[in-house]
């Protein structure tokens, strides 16, 4: 079978591998689409210290059931069923796992990062990691995992209908946070540098959109929040500037939820942590309930899926596409590799 492999920084190869041998507790998935995550781009650029090398990338999966192992509980899966995959592992022993939060497992190994991923014609995974998505196309299934990360951040922020929520960064994960917060009845303020992304955020549920390049950003935000600032800020960029912005602008007694990984140290005026009595919370990966919530949302059929997909490419186009993405990061929502 054909696989995409990042062999070393800047080098992508198409390699032939043996089709997976299906174990008794596994499901064999025919891969149709796999999304490229920012972690895949960083692996390509040599900036992902967690990634093995060489590695087959990919953990945003859209596929169909090809075969089911003999020990998989009957009735869960049928041949041809649209599915996605929970790409994380959980050791079951660390503090996070014992507290019922396996998404933050200390020893997690994500597909395409610490172990080979899904950018192949087929992948075999334990049946408990396979998530049925009835009524959703394999293409759209590839968008479930990144959107679920944004859904999880909103859950970490304990967002409710009395909150005003500012989401900084309207990429795929940030848009997931916009959708989930608006579904919970919150007033959502979307923040980004790109007007196209801000327009889409408003169509997905944001009540307001602010361009962070605006010279009057603080004044505009205060006007929208009655001079108090947002109750919850979701940081979905991973930049020192946006981390500081989140702490500076969140309301007193507010919550800051951090998704993005800043690639350099961040300097804070820590007096704001105390003066505002802030809750600062990390948000990592997603829980099964977040996947299910995204599937329920997409099943409604009112999400503009085509606008979330920047490109669909063939495996042989991966190298030039990753180079394009590295040079134009602000113009990409999701790039999907098609294996049909």
Automatic annotation (TrEMBL):
> A Pfam family name for this chain?
ADH_zinc_N
> Has UniProt tagged this entry with the keyword Metal-binding?
yes
Q: Does the keyword Zinc apply?
A: yes
Molecular function terms from GO: oxidoreductase activity, acting on the CH-OH group of donors, NAD or NADP as acceptor; zinc ion binding
Listed InterPro entries:
ADH-like_C (IPR013149), ADH-like_N (IPR013154), ADH_Zn_CS (IPR002328), ER (IPR020843), GroES-like_sf (IPR011032), NAD(P)-bd_dom_sf (IPR036291), Zn_alcohol_dh (IPR050129)
Cofactor(s) needed for function: Zn(2+)
Keywords, in A-Z order: Metal-binding, Oxidoreductase, Zinc
The record's listing under SUPFAM superfamilies reads:
GroES-like, NAD(P)-binding Rossmann-fold domains
Where the record annotates domain Enoyl reductase (ER), the positions are 7-303
Q: Give the family this protein belongs to, as stated in its UniProt record.
A: Belongs to the zinc-containing alcohol dehydrogenase family.
- Stated name of the protein: Zinc-binding alcohol dehydrogenase family protein
Q: Which organism is it from?
A: Duncaniella freteri
What is the phylogenetic placement of the source species in the record?
A: Bacteria, Pseudomonadati, Bacteroidota, Bacteroidia, Bacteroidales
